[in-house]
Amino acid sequence: MNFITVKEFFADSKSRLHLRILTGGEFLQKKKIIVSDINRPGLALAGFFDYFPYERIQVFGKTEFTYLKKLGREKANRVLERLFAANICCVIVSRNLPVPYNFLSIARRHHVPVMMSSIFTTKLISSIVTFLDKKLAPKITMHGTFVDVYGIGVMIIGKSGIGKSEISLELIKRGHRLVADDLIEVTRLSDDVLEGRGLSIIQHHMEIRGVGIIDIRNLFGVGAVRDEQKIELVMHLEEWEKGKDYERLGIEDVHEDILGVKVPKIILPVKPGRNLSVIIEVAAMTQRLKARGYNPARELNKSIIKWMKKDKKNPGENTDVPDK
Amino acid sequence: MQYKKKVKIVNNAGFHLRAVAVFVREAEKFKADIKVKNDAIEADGKSIMGLTTLGAGKGVEIEIKAEGPDAKEAIAGLMKLINDKFGEAE
Questions:
Q1: Which H or E run includes A269?
Q2: Is B16 in the active site?
């Protein structure tokens, strides 16, 4: 299961959420966050612990603290004791609220880190959820070259040596943008959205056989690269095999399953003399049309069927019929 | 045929560009599909950029996988290369 440690969370969110540690800094590494949801422990403070979501980050705001004050010192300490004993990953206090009673010492005794933020509770929660959603999303790395063609994220895959990098270079030369070459980190942002980005140090570099390593950003400028993009089309390059069936119409949709998301896929046979970059440009534009509900093959087919019906009704009258 | 083997990087500079290039040149001699894994990242054994991304420095244990008719020979050849420090004088 995906998780991040509270330490990673703190390091990544410190400046964005204006976070500081009140207690339990030494437990940060040990504590793991496994879900992106947040809990406001109101019901738990009232003594109701059934279904208590201890795996979530617990956020204390004005309401929680006001309630604790109302409970009085003794009752409050007792319920906090029970709450912190539930093995929760961490607590975040919002809007720099003063922490009452023995809150921190009880948290410390149960090895629960407590952090404080200056941000208002609801803002804080939505910000944490957005961050964790992305961090905890399912991920895989894939081989291929990822290019933004007319705003469509096109992932070019195929065996090594088939010419993925060369084709991408041609696309970049034609004004499109490189996202990543060779290794693409794919993240499932939601049920039907995949995002691809490059990995670390080599992002925006390419290796071109015979030339060596090139730096796309330096060669073509910042306009020729981007850091991430949605994956909307998969181009599978393969060697042209005589006798193999390739798509001739494009009426049926073919998909590649990536992390459970179906991405439209085109299998493109590679043969010397085929200008693949132009084909990929056209495929990207066609994909855009298809995404808007226009399938050129289906539309043409409709017209053909209509035309044939008309032809049968008035035989001999249709002068548009081409000679055989 | 599929084979896999774990091996530790022993040269000082690790998987730097030149070492990677030597590795890829060897890998390309074989028909087998070759993959190299470091932690969660798996790269194509015939790709310079991919292998560089692994960031495998000295002492890192990587896993080499090969699949194809000459998989066994491929693994043996690549293991030897790594253990010979990619022919680098140190």
A1: strand A261-270
A2: yes
pTM of the complete model: 0.73
Among A216, A194, A214, A215, CA closest to A141? A194
CB-closest option in B41, B44, B49 to A205: B49
Q: Does A141 touch chain B (CB under 8 A)?
A: yes
Q: Which tens digits make up the pLDDT trace of B65-90?
A: 999 999 999 999 999 999 988 887 76
Q: Does position A321 have pLDDT exceeding 60, yes or no?
A: no
Contact call for residues A125 and A38 (beta carbons, < 8 A): yes
User: What architecture is the B2-87 domain classified under in CATH?
Assistant: 2-Layer Sandwich (3.30)
Q: What percentage of chain A exceeds 70 in pLDDT?
A: 95
Phi, psi angles (nearest 5°) of residue A212: 115, -155
CA nearest neighbour of B58 among B34, B35, B86, B78: B86
CB A143 within 8 A of CB A183: yes
Q: Kindly identify which residue of chain B lies nearest to residue A204, measuring between CA atoms.
A: B49
Confidence of residue A182 (pLDDT cuts 50, 70, 90): confident
Q: How many helices (H) and strands (E) does chain A have?
A: 10, 17
Q: Tokens at residue A220, please?
A: 């073509």
Distance CA B40, CA B46 (A): 18
- Give DSSP secondary structure letters for B35-52: EEEETTEEEETT-HHHHH
| Cα–Cα distance for residue pair A126/A132, rounded to 1 Å | 10
Cβ–Cβ under 8 Å, residues A196 and A229: yes
**Each residue's pLDDT tens digit, A244-282:** 777 777 777 789 999 999 999 998 888 877 788 899 999
Q: Which pLDDT value is given to residue A249?
A: 76
Catalytic residue chosen out of the listed positions A143, A159, A274, A302: A143
Residue in B44, B46, B53 nearest the CB of A199: B53
Fold of A4-135: 3.40.1390
Identify the DSSP state of A46. Answer: T
Taking an 8 Å cut-off on Cβ atoms, the answer to whether A199 and B46 are in contact is no
Among A207, A215, A216, the residue to mutate for chain B (most B Cβ within 10 A)? A207
Is 60 exceeded by the pLDDT of residue A318?
A: no
CATH of A139-293, one of 3.40.50.2300, 3.40.50.300, 1.10.287.110, 3.30.230.10: 3.40.50.300
pLDDT in tens, A208-242: 888 888 999 999 999 999 999 999 999 999 888 87
